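Anyone? Bumping this.
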Amino acid sequence: MTEVDQRRLVGIKAERVTNISSTDYPGHYPNEDHSWNLEKFTKNLKVDVQRLSNRSIDFDLVGVDASIANAFRRIMIAEVPTVAIEHVYVWNNTTVIQDEVLAQRIGLIPLNVDPAPMEMRTPGNDAPTDRNTIVFHIKLECTHNPKPRPGATEPEDLYINSEFLSSHLVWRPEGEQPAMFGENPPAPTNPNIVLAKLRPGQEIEIDMHAIKGVGKDHAKFSPVATASYRLLPHIKILKPIPPPLAEKFQRCFAPGVIKVDPRTKQVSVDPHGVRNDTVSREVLRHPEFEGHVELSRVRDFFMFNVESESAYSPQRLLPEAIAVMRQKIVEIKAGVELLRNPGGESDVVMGNT
Amino acid sequence: MSASIPKVQIVPGTSPDESCATFRIHDESHTIGNALRWMLMKNPNVEFCGYSVPHPSENFIHVRIQMYNDLSSLDALVTALDDLDAVCTTIGDTYTKSLQSGKYERWEEQS
């Protein structure tokens, strides 16, 4: 088992956790310098992508404080902008689903519109324009199928348009949008979402306006199914496990975490499998293993799992979150500079630039 | 813009030489508050640093900074913001390098 500095470990005992807060602040340990040092930070920082799929990404962020990792997680969930339908204008709705319920369901449909070229509507400037709004339309009527299969009982055989699906949304290009979107017309990412079920005689006619927003405002604007992280588990075997109990010890952990040598029954921790451990503390329940093992988590090793549900590909989400964080820092810095020179113009030319 | 609330205000009750101050930052939450607090604590000249969200219904945070040796808390705040920016760029660059190296598993996820 690779040796990890004791200060980096959060101890996990049967009924308590120990050593939780980070202590690497200047002045905490005498004669040690923990003040901010960018070179030391860059040397210790590791960002490794582990797995990438078309919908999610797993990456490790090692060497940062929990506050930074948490800031990126919060930003990915709530402050990376997306485009979703906000205004629903119902011309005709004779279905059994009420207008407001249908409007709420329509708002939750994820769209494949890249938010970057779209502008956000601000309180002083919220007229719908082709730069900040995307218009969709739906007109659907359910009718009897004139020639159903004999003996058919399913609604899709008996009726035409018995379900209002997200694939029925029709994009109405406005202004310069055909040039802006070209080969990727705005549409729902998933065409199979059922929004309402209809029967013959029921009609829907709705205009929808989609705008750019953030998850802080409404969860429909969140780009991730969720973004989460967990800390790397650390298992230390203090005393050798007796060979008869080796199999039982292995079963106390998730599969792949503990290696048992088939011949000598030597128990060791698999350094690559340990990340799959769920830290269920099952081993602490058995008196025969008391004092043999020490469970902990590494405080600065964050294993992120980000599932994208929006137009962003999963690998784009962390860079977008970093951009949002940097923008926040810029805004706060501008506010602080105003405090420093009150009344002064922020873009005063200084000397020879 | 003049009618809108300033982004950063100093809460009354500051020492006259600005070595201790409470900053009220509007439209921010624990996201930037905790990160800023951590970076300020990394400054050896900071005697005390803490942040709070006075009420969850009001969208601002308070950051309290107290300095040793009568140094300026405004300077410490600006330094911390610059260092946080450096952290963000470093993480972004390291991530991009890892992504481009391609040394990871790729798999097809079903919708």
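Late reply, but here is one note on the structure posted above: The two ends of chain B are 45 Å apart (CA to CA).
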